[in-house]
Structure formats: C-alpha cells, structure tokens
Amino acid sequence: MSADLNAPAHPTDAPEAPNRASVPTPREPDSPAALAAPAAVAHASDRGARIAAVAIALAWHVAIALPAVLSARAEFAAPAVVLGAWILVAVTGAVAGVRLLQGSPLPPWPLAGLLLVVDAAVFAAAGERQLFTAANWVWGTLGWFFVLAVWGRRVVGLIALLSTHALIALVAVLVHGPDPADVARYVMYVYGTFSLPVAVFVGSTVIVGLARERAAVSAAGHAMAAERDAAERGLRERRDRLALVSSAAGRVLGDLAGGQADPDDPEVQRRCMLAAARLRRLIAESDDVPDPLLHELRAAADLAERNGLPIDLVTIGTPPPLPVEVRRRLADPLTGTLADARGWARLTVVSGPDEVVVSLVTPDREGPESTGPPPGEHDDGPVQYLYERDGNIRWAQTRWRR
C-alpha cells in the first residue's frame, strides 16, 4: 500500500502521519520472556561449575590415583580388587560426567550406592600398609564422584555420602588396630575428604544463585528502561500524528468558518468525514480493549452511521494480537473508502490465528477516485491491499498474513 492511500483530493488536506515502526510492547516482569535471561545466565554459570567438577574428578582419578595404584600394586592385599575398582569408577565417572554435562545426569542414589560399595571393597583390599597412602585412592578421589552423583540436589545428600565414606574408613582403621597416630591421620584425611568437595559443591550453588539474582535485577532494569522508552516513543508518535490530523481538520473548519467552503458541497462533506474518522481512530488506538482492530473499525463505522450512511459490520473469528502499524495498514485504506461511500456500506472482518482479512463493499458511482490508489492489487509490507470497481459496486480489501 503506497503512502497516498488515504491522501485527500483537496490540496489543503494534510495526509495522515506516515506509518512508523510500531512501538514494542514491554514485557511483563514475570513473563516467560522476562524470566528467560536470568535462567540462561544461571544455566551458563551452572554449566561452568559442572565442567570444573567433572574435570577435577577425572583428572584426580587419572593423574594422582592411577600412578599411585600402579606403583603399589604388589603391596595391596588384593591388587585385582583395587585396580578393578579403579577401572569401574573411571568408566562410571566418565559416563556420569558426560551425562551431567548433557543435562541428563544418571540416577543419583543408585550411582552413590555403587560408589559406596567400591569404597568398602577398596578399603578392605588395600591392606594395612596402604591404608593411609595415595595408593588407597578412595580417600582423595571418591568424594569428587559423590559430587557428580548428587549435583543439583541439596548439600545434605553430599554430606550424608561423605559421612558414610568416613564411617567406612573408620571401620577399616579400627579393624587394623589403630594407634594414636592412625587416629590423627584418620581425622586429617576425613577433614580433607569433606572440605574440598563440600566447598566446591556449595560454592557453585551460591555462584549460580548470585548469577541468577543479578541477571534478574539487570533484566528488570532493562525491562523498565524499555518500557519507559516505549512509552516515550509512543507518546511522541501520537503527538506527531495528532498534530498532522488536527492540522487537516483545522483547515477544513477554517475554510468553513471563513466562508471558503460550502457545507453542502459533497467534497467538503467528504473531507470533514475523513478528518473526523482519522481523529476517531487515533483516539481508539489507545483504548484498552480486547480486540483493538475491531474497536477501531467500529469507531469508523459508527462515525459513518452518524453521517447518515447505513453500514453493516460483520465479524467472523477473533483477530490475533496485532502491532499498531499493522492495524493502521488494515484500517486506513478502508477508512478513506468509507468516507467516500454513498448509499450503504458493508464491512466484513474475517480473522484467524495467522490471517486477518477486512473487506468493504459500497455502491459504485460515476466519477474518478477521490481517495486511494487506482484499482488493482498493492502491497505494503505485511499487508496486501486490493481495490476493484465494476460500475455497480466498489470493493476494497486489506489482508494480513503472519
């Protein structure tokens, strides 16, 4: 649809303000779109912490535990059990780590139960001589795999697993008849087993929570700024449009007041009706109603009826939410044609989820077009305008497709 669709024939009529990009509707603070940014930031932070936890567990298991196991394999009470348990945990940990990074972790408690069984078996198979050495790899490694098993859950679960691990170690120490030095070493090992995994687990949870909170505060601030900017742009746009429309109406009234226009002249009447329709639709655009497009079309139809034009308004379906720009392009051409109608008019609105069609039928009459483009099909962005006349009727249609 070209810019002169509604341009009045009278040279003193100013055209309505050009269509501008519609003002974006601000998002509600609790809408899914507004919540998406904090969730994305929290997910990114959590993923970084997951990568760090998986890397620590596997690197510790391979770089520290494996060399110690291989160097002391001849000194174990049951070397095959210790080495087999190491392989089992390596494979299980790799699978658990990959699944955790993919967002589909393994069931936590079956995995934790398997790790505790391995824990007890290795303590029994390590023997007294390797009880407090690096070769007894469950001391330093198993806690990190507990972290992978219960990631994303409450820290109470991790503490319960580490406490069970400490009890298993205590039983092994007591079985071998500990002396005070063994008890001191046991306390030191338990402290190390608890402190680092719990610190990483709790720290990652706190960091993710802080990231989510800060992202939410930032998103809320941006939403408020966008809402304020949208309101200011909308206000400026309405002021500009009102100034132009009022100017056109003011010239018509000035001509009438100065005796330069005859109220009985059909062209003067058409100018008055077109100016009034534009003012009325401009007012209707800001009304808070369920169906803004139908509301604006009803306002134009009501004005036509008040000027003595019988008009039928038929609606089928409910229009989807449409930007102001699209509503203007759907209504403006028909408003101009309606202002030029004589005798009667029929306005039909057919709506669907992805399409809105507005049609206007009026009797044809002799003479050139006083509004709108020549007959034919015209495109204006997402809105298609079709206008035909055959000597009996004039038919105008605007169509929007998603």
Automatic annotation (TrEMBL):
Keywords: Membrane, Transmembrane, Transmembrane helix. It comes from the Bacteria. The keyword Transmembrane helix applies. The chain crosses the membrane at residues 51-70, 76-101, 108-126, 132-151, 158-177, 189-211. Residues 1-35, 363-384 are annotated as: Disordered. This is Uncharacterized protein. The lineage of its organism: Bacteria, Bacillati, Actinomycetota, Actinomycetes, Micromonosporales.
